UniProtKB/TrEMBL annotation:
Pathway: Cell wall biogenesis; peptidoglycan biosynthesis
UniProt-listed Pfam families: YkuD
A GO molecular-function annotation: acyltransferase activity
Key words of the record: Acyltransferase, Cell shape, Cell wall biogenesis/degradation, Glycosyltransferase, Hydrolase, Peptidoglycan synthesis, Signal, Transferase
Enzymatic class: transferase
Protein name, per record: L,D-transpeptidase
Domain of life: Bacteria
Family under the similarity heading: Belongs to the YkuD family.
Gene source species: Daeguia caeni
Enzyme Commission number(s): 2.3.2.-
Record-annotated L,D-TPase catalytic domain positions: 69-205
InterPro entries on file: LD-transpeptidase (IPR050979), LD_TPept_cat_dom (IPR005490), Transpep_catalytic_dom (IPR038063)
Alphabetical list of SUPFAM superfamilies matching this protein: L,D-transpeptidase catalytic domain-like (SSF141523)
Length: 206
């Protein structure tokens, strides 16, 4: 009887896992980009066929000496890796800083915020005076540039000013369009937010 219950539980678990996954060729995808209700907001569905396959959330083989829980950002390839045990990583497509706004280095996740307020830096307001109306902060929401979640990156010098965050502009993933922050699709930043711990190491490579 116990054996039968165990087998049933295993089948139910596998079914639940596969319900949120799909395969394409030899690639195992874990992503679902359907509409999501979150904290009173409804995140619109993203047309999966318009997301290049390499930028969809997926588990990949990844050899590294870094500990599980570390985040490695490959700005050249436009990938973010969340290191998992057993030589695996969850890989996400990202958008990165445009020319003149690139950066690299090591930081830590100092804070995590759900549906964060966005406050444009003074330098950004000087470049784009129309953003002055948000100098005291833009309220959370579907149009907020930080999207559904934000991870705030600090180093030994304090706040780097850079974030790993969601974006409503999902079409910018795979491109260099930001002011240095790491952009992710809202569905993906929610997934990463649940995995990444405050204090986690973040390595940004160029």
């Amino acid at each position: 009887m116990k054996s039968r219950i165990s087998r049933l539980a295993s089948v139910m678990f596998i079914g639940a896992v596969l319900a949120g996954c799909s395969t394409f060729g030899n690639t195992f995808y874990t992503a679902s980009y359907t509409s999501v209700s979150d904290a009173g907001y409804v995140i619109p569905a993203i047309p999966t066929e318009k997301i290049p396959p390499q930028y969809r959330r997926q588990i990949v083989n990844y050899a590294t000496n870094e500990a599980p829980g570390t985040i490695i950002v490959d700005t050249k390839s436009k990938f973010l890796y969340f290191i998992m045990p057993g030589g695996k990583a969850m890989r996400y497509g990202i958008g990165v800083g445009r020319e003149g706004f690139e950066w690299s280095g090591t930081a830590r996740i100092a804070m995590k915020r759900e549906w964060p307020t966005w406050t444009p830096p003074a330098a950004m307001i000087r470049r784009q005076p129309e953003l002055a109306k948000y100098r005291n902060g833009m309220s959370p929401g579907l149009k907020n540039p930080l999207g559904a979640r934000a991870l705030y990156l600090f180093n030994k010098g304090g706040d780097t000013g850079y974030r790993i965050h969601g974006t409503p502009e999902w079409w910018s993933i795979g491109k260099a369009m930001s002011s240095g922050c790491i952009r992710m699709m809202n569905h993906d930043i929610i997934d990463l937010y649940e995995r990444a711990e405050q204090g986690a190491k973040v390595i940004v490579q160029q």
